[in-house]
Design goal:
CATH architecture of the largest domain: 3-Layer(aba) Sandwich
Distance between the termini: 38 Å
Number of domains: 2
Shape: globular
Number of strands: 20
Radius of gyration: 22 Å
Order of helices and strands: EHEEEHEEEEHEEEEHHEEEEEEEE
Structural class: alpha/beta
Largest sheet: 6 strands, mixed
Length: about 350
């Protein structure tokens, strides 16, 4: 995507929670935040943000930081930079860390407390209201679009509240009610979100961010269409539970506020296989057939939709797979083979 000099982002990743109940420090939140920031700054197929427009805040253990002021300072700087270019287009907020639900007062929208590193049972309000951050940006800052992703738990730990920041403005900006807002949570209300390694050789990552980045990089629109909030949400609904299930866990993402009926486009899809030409479609996997196999072959997706059918002699087949189970059938003999396509399998092949 061409450089988007009117897009800005605050990306937050906290691993360090020495006083947190039932879990303590996280292992993948900082890596998730860094990788999301990398996607935002990717000028080829990512968000296209200039480096200076993407503010990345990560935690440290000694000293234990940050606190709310660093987040406030980063948002004020984004506000000033957006004003300096005559107003922004899109604001991204990404948070990866501990979170929990809390008792809201007079709020009807889904919310989550974004826990700061000093959160503890003795300091249960050391967190920030996600809705407050959204409201500050919407009412005060010159953005027409707000996109928020929250990779954190929403379970209820104890009776507590999330604090507001000190941010605000004397009067709301004109037209703030028309801001297009998309927010997606890693888990349903009062449910947990998890992190884990997909195999012994990979780093620990949040299931939600793993799916989010795969979707933004093309998996949400495998045929090369635009990656919209609708396509991304459809992909996350299927992929997050699948990744969690691999580790014997249950996790279901949840949409929060979804105001725009219009399509918001994320990045530019980049085919994972050979670039499409006049005689070939984009592909990210290849299906080969054993020399003795004759007759007709049928390929189905996870919904049993026929993706391709033809004689084995027409192989090998370049295909564009989503991250799901696909089924090959030998029509004459009834032989079948499942292909469980997962991240990291791009460019590989299977022989049937």
């Amino acid at each position: 995507m061409p450089e988007q000099n009117k897009d800005f982002a605050l990306v937050v990743g906290f691993n360090h929670y020495p006083f947190y109940a039932d879990g303590g420090n996280l292992r993948g939140a900082i890596a998730d935040a860094c990788k999301f920031a990398d996607w935002l700054k990717d000028k080829q197929s990512g968000g296209g943000l200039p480096d200076a427009n993407c503010k990345l805040i990560t935690s440290t253990g000694d000293p234990l930081a940050p606190d709310v002021q660093q987040i406030e300072d980063a948002l004020v700087e984004i506000w000033q930079l957006a004003n300096a270019v005559g107003g922004g287009r899109r604001f991204y907020l990404f948070f990866s860390g501990h979170g929990h639900s809390f008792d809201t007062v007079g709020q009807q929208l889904p919310d989550v407390a974004l826990c700061l590193p000093r959160w503890s049972r003795e300091l249960p309000n050391k967190s920030i209201s996600a809705n407050h951050l959204m409201g500050w940006v919407q009412r005060c800052m010159p953005f027409s679009e707000i996109v928020m992703f929250f990779d954190c738990c929403r379970s209820r730990i104890l009776k507590s509240r999330a604090q507001d920041t000190a941010g605000g403005c004397p009067t709301a900006r004109e037209g703030y009610q028309d801001t297009k807002i998309v927010s997606i949570f890693a888990a349903e209300h009062e449910q947990r979100a998890f992190e884990g390694a997909q195999d012994a050789d990979t780093e620990v990552r949040g299931y939600f961010t793993t799916a989010l980045l795969a979707g933004l990089k093309g998996a949400a629109a495998p045929a090369g269409e635009d990656i919209t909030q609708f396509a991304l949400w459809d992909y996350l609904q299927a992929e997050v539970p699948r990744l969690a299930k691999v580790d014997g866990r249950q996790q279901v993402p949840k949409r929060g506020m979804q105001l725009p009926p219009e399509r918001l486009v994320f990045g530019s899809p980049s085919p994972l296989g050979p670039a499409p030409g006049p005689a070939a479609a984009a592909s990210n996997f290849e299906i080969r057939f054993k020399g003795w196999r004759n007759g007709s072959i049928r390929l189905r997706d996870a919904d049993s939709k026929v993706l391709r059918e033809g004689p084995a002699s027409s192989g090998p087949w370049p295909v564009m797979f989503k991250y799901e189970v696909n089924l090959l059938e030998h029509v004459e003999t009834g032989d079948t083979m499942s292909i469980f396509f997962r991240p990291g399998m791009e460019g590989q092949h299977a022989t049937f």
